[in-house]
Specification:
heterodimer, A: alpha/beta, five-stranded mixed β-sheet, three-stranded antiparallel β-sheet, 11 helices, globular, B: alpha+beta, eight-stranded mixed β-sheet, four-stranded antiparallel β-sheet, 12 helices, binds iron/sulfur cluster
Chain lengths: 313, 375
């Protein structure tokens, strides 16, 4: 991991010194050792503040459609998929973006880690030690197998063909494990209705999920907040929250890479990934399309194909 | 006012008697997030947690109907919203959260512009504050003028070694104790000394941040580079302001049609792009760093200038909930470093205000300056 970090810093320094980009977006230390925080490096001498570890959760692709400068972005293989999807949608100018991809060991799911070791708020250190995540709280080192606390998507992540202008491969082994789903095998629409009613009941409509999502770049035109047509009501209730989330899920259908950024952003822990996986499954089934794979194919719901009409879709 | 001892064993009995007479809200663990919820008879609140969401919404409702109207043959009938709050008790609220209501009272109880519904809910509520016997890494109440044992609210209590020292601070609070006198015993000087010692220990365990004064911070207004650097990573969502006990921005929306409808007041956030957008599309805070500047300066400069107190209670929720781990303390420390270099007693001239940042130049929404992020 140290070697990887060193290479990363070197590359960032080089890009800034040669003035190929004006900023390198990566991760730096957060206020809490179990939370890395996005870092915009604008001076080569600050490149040494870049870090990489299993706590680098943020999908940094989210910043790209917002910038109008030449930027390099550091991506995990899953985040690189978001960059590909944004290029496919024409939302970022390929010329202005340099992608530094890292073959990564996997990322910690903070909710799983908290369930295993308790609140991370008072952690004084957190790191990967071999195949174990160590969290130090109050002088005590709590250890838990990484395989038990990684993001579900990490278990399925395939890092063979990683997109990037530069790919940093330090030979780290990726975490393996089994996703444990809260969804019963025989979940029917009634189960899902009750499940989402319970979950969205606590949504505070802060829109952190939307802002953390690389596919949600509508800004002022977002259907739920635009000053013109309003598609959700003023009242704060489960029905309105459901309306917002159903709408968002449909708007990102075929563009969502299931990166989990929305779920990690939610201050009240709503398992949004389950919603986006459901929609993703439908897209894969209906259109035989994998988001984030090809930069030159427009997302399926953005194009009209006569065959789709004929095949009854 | 009275100071008493409540044994840990009698806490449930006291709560039950309060539940019988009032709606009682207290910290409750929940799936995904902890919050203040209405408790039932026999239910013990989670007295040792700091809730993920603040108790703010119990008094300053997230969404509230402020009036309804109907056009009829004789004119328009307007029915105001309910200004008489339901009697409720917010139990087990931390000193910082308790203090937050005293701050929000300042603008909403302003005699020139009273917020009747807020006032109604506030007057009908009693706050039972539980002093903190430990602080967590994001707590900084001692830096903004508060304390882990600050005596604020209507009743103040502290866990001193398995029993509670309980003190009434207002008549309202005294009533809550007097009605249940049998459950309490007298407090000794030793009990009070123990509470004082615990409070000091907790306060000493917290790092103290020095905060630049309101005027010095206001002088930072035009330092674009400072705000841009500070805000680079911010996503401009509403998480920090919605979990903040002191943020009180709101929006008003009508629902219905031109003949019959309802008007709602709901939380808004200065971090939202739409917040400042005016008719015609002009947005004076079109970049995220200008919105961050508003959030920071409102809390640490404008509010204290106007009302005397910093509009932040140091609860640390914004730090814990931010999806990109933006740490407000970086602003406090960073601004002190910058303003520290400015001449002491620097007074901003009026002419300084009228510079490019407050000009009415209209820029397209997606245009960004080179060194700043976009929206
Ligand atoms: S909807 Fe959620 S999972 Fe899908 S791309 Fe956006 S942030 Fe990632
Ligand atoms: S981040 Fe969570 S609470 Fe906020 S709007 Fe999204 S789902 Fe709701
Ligand atoms: S900031 Fe922390 S220590 Fe201070 S009153 Fe709030 S919860 Fe207690
Ligand atoms: S500081 Fe954090 S929580 Fe607040 S708007 Fe920015 S990203 Fe959202
Ligand atoms: S600004 Fe942050 S620390 Fe201050 S009161 Fe609000 S949430 Fe708490």
């Amino acid at each position: 991991m140290e070697k990887l970090e060193a290479e990363l810093r070197e590359k960032a320094k080089e890009l800034l010194e040669k003035e190929e980009v004006t900023t390198v977006i990566g991760w730096g230390a957060g206020w809490n050792p179990a939370k890395a925080s996005p870092l915009f490096v604008r001076d080569a001498q600050d490149a040494d503040k870049l870090v990489f570890n299993p706590f680098c959760q943020n999908n940094l692709a989210v910043y790209l459609p917002r910038l109008n400068e030449k930027a390099a972005v550091i991506t995990k293989p899953c985040d690189a998929g978001s960059v590909v999807a944004l290029i496919a949608e024409g939302k970022i100018d390929r010329e202005n973006v340099k992608v530094i991809s890292i073959k990564c060991p996997g990322t910690v799911n903070p909710a799983k880690l908290e369930a295993a070791v308790g609140s991370l708020d008072d952690a004084t250190a957190a790191y990967l030690d071999g195949d174990t995540i160590v969290v130090e709280v109050g002088g005590e080192a709590k250890r838990v197998p990484f395989a038990q606390v990684a993001l579900d998507s990490c278990y399925l992540c395939n890092q063979d063909n990683v997109f990037g202008d530069v790919v940093i491969d330090d030979g780290v082994t990726k975490v393996t494990g089994e996703a444990v789903s809260v969804v019963p095998e025989d979940a029917d629409s009634a189960w899902w209705r009750d499940f989402w009613a319970k979950e969205f009941d606590r949504c505070i409509r802060c829109y952190a999920c939307r802002e953390a999502c690389p596919a949600c770049y509508c800004r002022d035109n977002c259907a739920v907040q635009a000053l013109r047509e309003r598609w959700t009501g003023a009242k704060l209730d489960t029905k309105e929250a459901l309306m917002f989330h159903a709408q968002r899920a449909m708007h990102v259908a075929g563009r969502c890479t299931e990166c989990g950024s929305c779920e990690r952003a939610c201050p009240v822990g709503i398992p949004l990934s389950l919603l986006h996986k459901q929609v993703g499954d439908a897209v894969r089934k209906l259109f035989d399309f994998n988001v984030g794979e090809k930069a030159d194919v427009r997302p399926p719901l953005e194009v009209f194909r006569k065959e789709e009409l004929e095949s009854g879709h | 006012m009275v100071t008493k001892i409540l044994s840990a064993g009698n806490l449930q009995a006291w709560l039950d008697s309060l539940v019988a007479a009032y709606q009682v809200y207290a910290p409750v663990e929940g799936e995904g997030a902890s919050s203040f919820k209405k408790i039932a008879k026999g239910q013990m609140p989670a007295m040792d947690i700091r809730t993920d969401t603040p108790p703010k919404g119990l008094i300053f409702k997230q969404v509230e109907k402020i009036l309804s109207f109907e056009v009829n043959p004789d004119g328009i009938t307007v029915i105001p919203g309910d200004e008489n709050g339901t009697k409720k008790i917010v139990f087990g609220i931390r000193p910082c959260d308790s203090r937050s209501f005293t701050l929000t009272d300042k603008p909403f109880f302003d005699p020139n512009l009273p917020e009747n519904q807020y006032m109604g809910h506030r007057n009908a509520s009693a706050l039972v504050t539980t002093a903190c016997t430990s602080a967590c890494r994001t707590c900084f109440c001692t830096s903004i003028g508060g304390a882990p044992d600050e005596k604020t609210g209507d009743v103040w209590m502290m866990d001193i070694d398995g029993k509670y020292l309980v003190e009434s601070l207002t008549d309202k609070g005294e009533e809550l104790i007097k009605a249940n006198e049998g459950l309490f015993s007298d407090a000794s000087a030793d009990d009070e000394a123990a509470a004082k010692r615990i409070g000091e220990e907790v306060a000493n365990s917290m790092p103290k941040i020095n905060i630049a004064d309101a005027k010095a911070l206001d002088a930072l207004f035009n330092d674009d580079a400072f705000w841009q650097k500070l805000t680079d990573k911010c996503l401009s969502c509403g998480a920090c302001t919605f979990v903040c006990p002191t943020c009180y921005c709101f929006d008003v929306r009508d629902e219905g049609n031109t003949r019959k409808g309802e008007r709602y007041r709901g939380w808004d956030s200065c971090m939202f792009y739409q917040y400042n957008r005016a008719a015609g599309g002009h947005n004076p805070r079109e970049f995220h760093w200008k919105r961050m500047r508003q959030r920071m300066l409102h809390k640490f400069s404008y509010f204290p200038e106007k009302y005397g107190d910093i509009d932040c209670v140091g609860c640390g929720r914004c730090i814990r909930s931010c999806p990109v781990s933006y740490d407000l303390r970086d602003f406090l420390e960073g601004s002190l470093a910058v303003t520290g270099a400015a001449p002491v007693g620097f007074e901003k001239e009026l002419s300084d205000v009228d510079t490019k940042d407050r000009s009415c130049e209209i820029k397209p929404a997606d245009e960004t300056v080179k060194t700043g992020g976009g929206l």
